[in-house]
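pasting for the record
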Amino acid sequence: MLQRQIVAISVFMCFVQETVPLAAQAPDTGLEALAQACAADDAASCSKLCDGGDARACSNLGFMYATGRGVTPDPVKAVPLLEKACDRGAADGCGMLGASYEEGRGVGQDLRKAVALYEKACSGGDARGCNNLGFMYENGKGIARDNTKALELYKRACDGDAADGCENLGFMYATGTGVARDASKAVQLFQKACDRDRATACENLGRAYEHGDGVARDPAKAARLYRRACDLGFQAACGKAATP
């Protein structure tokens, strides 16, 4: 049985922040120092920049409070920060705010609002927002189920280098959901996601090599992939041996 590592891991893990050159917006060394400190998860520096109108600083600070990265977790405090980020044009802030509404973290659960925020994030170029919007369409959460639309969004997410989008797209090709089944295409997508440390993608890739589904059978490679999935935290793959 194929495995999936989808949004509820929590959803915020799909929005792992990358180091953002906030200092590019800073015209003086004082702001540059604040931007560098904010990029290194200094909450006080992020707060000063956010108060000054820096959308990415608001987004970073909101993520920190939502996940407890560098601060005591406070999902309620995260919400207004993510609202500021989204309103000021930070697409990832919209996506993370959508995750708050999807999960009901720090705010009342509202799936329709989550969909609207994911749409805004995806339209703004946030690949993880596209992935989460695809998940909403695939599962009929807050919007009518539409596997064709989900497929399109997962592809957009994968093309935007979101590993979870590649994994979800691979799952659809592997199962023939919303598209003709294509095991070879699924293998390519699982490989791309596994290379980006998606544990269940590595497990699914191992399964393909174990059974020769979409790729030449290779039990030894399957075992290595199961071990990688285990090392990445997917316990079900630990100690799993490929069928000789």
